[in-house]
Structures are given as C-alpha cells and as structure tokens.
Write a structure and sequence with these properties.
Helix content: 10-25%
Strand content: 35-45%
Strand order of the largest sheet: 3-4-5-6-7-8-9-10
Largest sheet: 8 strands, antiparallel, barrel
Number of helices: 5
Number of strands: 10
Structural class: alpha+beta
Length: 248
C-alpha cells in the first residue's frame, strides 16, 4: 500500500479534519442530487492507500469539494477514466464522455465549461488611489449546472475560488480571494458575488463582481474568464501552473 499523500495534503490545505472532509463530501452529494455515505473511515482508507478506486459517486463529490479533477488527487486512475462498480464486487474503468474533452477544444454554447481558464478582474485600490488588473490561471470543474473554480497555486501569490451555477450562458455565484501574507493586503480574505455572461463562441465569460473594500464599502468591477484548454489532466494543470503573461 502506498499512502495517498496528495489527497491528504489537499484536505489539510482546506483545513478540514477527516471527519469534516467526509461531511463535506456528503453535503456535495446531496447538493448534486447524488447522496453518498462518506465517513471518516472511508477518508482514512483513501489516504492510507487501502482503497485506491473511488466509486463515481465519490469521485464526483471529491471533485466538487476540492475543486480539483480526480486525476490530481493522487488516485491511480487513467487520465480520462473514472472507476465504476462492475456489479460483481470489483471495479472497471469507464472512459469519460464529456463533450469537448479533447485538448484545445472549446466549450460548447450549451454550457460545457470544464477546463483551464484565464481569470482576469479589475479593481480600484483606494489606499493607493490606482486601478489594478489581477490574473490567475484556474481549473473549472462542472457537475451538471454547478461549476467550481480554483486558481492554480503557481499562477499568482493569492488564491481565488468560485462556486457558480450555470443557466445556459448565464453564470451566477460567489467568489473568494485569499491574498498573500507578504503582499499589500497582508493576507486579508475578500469575498462577494459575481455574474457572468457566456459569449456565443463559448470561449469567454464576462461580467461583474461585487464585494466589500478595506473601508467596508461595497465595490464592483469587471471580471472575465477566457478559455485556454479543455483538458484537466495533471499534465495540463502543470503546464498552466505559472503566472499568466503580463497585461499589456
């Protein structure tokens, strides 16, 4: 048995105990209409390496809670496959049938948003009396009409996440950003609401964010996500785990 140190590191980064993580998986299942019976013992089995093949219902919940594709959570599963119960007490591999899953393909106008996107937003700093543009590369995972967005750690000093719901080309939800402890905002955490509209090409989502400032005033500004790659394999995420090109 080889311990799944990757999954454990992700759980710890979320500041969740094994029991809390299991409850989060249960909540994700209920929200997705796929109730599960995740418990602390199951999490222990995954992290110890005793169980290495999560059933699809758990794989989807793991992706929703962590915001990462199952391929990046330390399980020895094929890049484009999920483990499924074969009905005989064992497991088989099933190839994913996600539209637009080929690398380089763009999402369709029907709402397939999974992949790597470039996130870019603008804000005005009252303390510095200047407007700024900030960027992250982010992975978007989709389960039905629910989208989770997580910035890639190497793309910026801060971390950004979104929880969104897609209704055709209208995408609405919340955002959170944890700033760098060494930066101007000294580790402050900001959050707010966001609404985006998908362009007909399916390669760009653009809209507005709303949130509070350091003086507890309500601010707003533009935010856009630009499609980069439909693949969420580890190799693809590694390729984008770097700072985006500077805004010209």
């Amino acid at each position: 048995m080889t311990p799944n140190t990757t999954l454990r590191a992700v759980r710890v980064s979320l500041r969740l105990s094994q029991d809390d993580f299991a409850h989060a998986l249960q909540r994700a299942g209920v929200e997705a209409g796929e109730p599960n019976t995740a418990n602390k013992r199951l999490v222990q089995r995954w992290e110890s390496g005793i169980s290495t093949e999560p059933r699809p219902i758990y794989a989807r919940a793991l992706e929703m809670v962590t915001g990462l594709p199952i391929e990046s959570l330390g399980f020895p599963v094929g890049v484009d496959a999920l483990v499924v119960d074969d009905g005989r007490g064992g497991h088989d591999l099933e190839v994913r049938a996600t539209p637009g899953s080929a690398a380089g393909a763009s999402p369709t106008r029907f709402g397939n948003y999974a992949g790597v996107w470039l996130s870019r937003y603008e804000f005005f700093s009252s303390g510095r009396n200047k407007a700024y543009t900030f960027q992250h590369y982010a992975v978007v995972l989709q389960h039905g009409n629910r989208l989770t967005v997580r910035s890639l750690p190497g793309s910026a000093d801060s971390t950004m996440s979104m929880e969104l719901v897609a209704d055709g080309n209208v995408v609405t939800g919340t955002w959170t950003e944890q700033t760098s402890v060494d930066g101007y905002y000294r580790g402050a955490r900001y959050h707010g609401a966001i609404q985006l509209l998908g362009e007909p090409s399916g390669r760009r989502l653009a809209g507005k964010w709303v949130g509070f400032g350091s003086s507890m005033d309500v601010n707003t500004g533009p935010w856009a996500l630009t499609f980069q790659d439909a693949s969420t394999s580890k190799a693809s995420l590694d390729a984008y785990d770097r700072p985006p090109p500077a805004v010209s």
